[in-house]
From TrEMBL:
Keywords: Transferase, Ubl conjugation pathway. This is U-box domain-containing protein. Functions as an E3 ubiquitin ligase. Coiled coil: none annotated. It is an enzyme of class 2 (transferase). It catalyses: S-ubiquitinyl-[E2 ubiquitin-conjugating enzyme]-L-cysteine + [acceptor protein]-L-lysine = [E2 ubiquitin-conjugating enzyme]-L-cysteine + N(6)-ubiquitinyl-[acceptor protein]-L-lysine. InterPro entries: ARM-like, ARM-type_fold, ARM_PUB, PUB22/23/24-like, RING-Ubox_PUB, Ubox_domain, Znf_RING/FYVE/PHD. PROSITE patterns: U_BOX. Its EC number is 2.3.2.27. It holds the Pfam family U-box. The keyword Electron transport does not apply. Pathway: Protein modification; protein ubiquitination. One of its GO terms (molecular function) is ubiquitin protein ligase activity.
Amino acid sequence: MPGTTIVEPLDLVGLQIPYHFRCPISLELMRDPVTVCTGQTYDRSSIESWVATGNTTCPVTRAPLSDFTFIPNHTLRRLIQDWCVENQAFGIQRIPTPKQPADPVMVRALLTQASAVSSPFQPRLSALRRLKGLARDSDKNRSVISSHDAREVLIDIVFSDTGSSELSVEALAVLVMFQLNESECESIGSDPNRVVYLSRMLFHSSIEVRINSASLIENVLSGTRSSDLRAQISNADEIFEGVVDILRNLNSYPRALRIGVRALFALCLVKQTRHKAVQAGAPATLIDRLADLDKCDAERALATIELLCRIPSGCSAFAAHALTVPLLVKTILKISDRATEYAAGALMALCSESEGSQREAVSAGVLTQLLLLVQSDCTERAKRKAQMLLKLLRDSWPEDSIGNSDDFACSEIVPF
């Protein structure tokens, strides 16, 4: 709840929040006080939640809310901020001045200006940049913008104004902040010219433009149920090279890595074109960047590794990388149940194809990891993969590894 980080230290030191600074709904210090048509003041998030759940009355007076406009109470907010500053000695932090939500009338005007083909270039560009700023500010703003058919307008600008690269890339930057519906995804994915344009933008001089292009590609692939359409998109020239290069780029930052991994995974779900990912250098890049990824991105990267290990060229490429097997062994039980399952699956594929990978896995300590895995609370699929891998690796174990292993003796693995 908003204000929790402020209320807790107040309670600890016995500092009382002035009654009129508390929201009547949440009873917490207000961060963005707004006044409704009955004259009562509430914290914006609280009254918005109240109305969103179907309530049409003022929580305090119970009078009907004839108008759902919430007017910022700037005077009260400044008083609250001053009170916070006065009590900094008690660990109270000043509440930042909240940004006001986008005005629907202004949003409509900006979209009209941006889409006006007959208008001069600069006003259109300024309108798109203003929309981008509003969309970045809050989910509320994005909801307001989306409610005015913004996605349709932005798609049209992205692909109709490709001659004016600046307009196109600004519209693209706004568009990727919204989730497209299936028909919008199909309108992009079914047009070869649009797919080629996005693929070409993966090599733009600006890393931001490249990331946004990859983001839209992933959005379209994820939002399309047609396997034929996904195959058509993933078969576009150099689309894998562009996405892999985002991951390989040393200037890539967390958002770039996240979107690069998501786009590559979406592309690799198409079986027919996985060999293109291998040709583009995806195996080595995934292994090299795995340590730089957070939990969710690492899971997706490991899932992609397992997918690519299902084709011969992928297996060969991963087996040729000196860090693949040790890194996969190390990953087991370290990140999450999903990550463990994908790592075990990839190791299974590699070890099934290569005795060298089997020896590497044993040397990296896979035996202990797998024994711990089958006795853990992880998924049944992960346990099955671990049992299959233990059976496959049996001939590669050191002679004394079974007889002297208490872990093995008490494991649930049945004798082979």
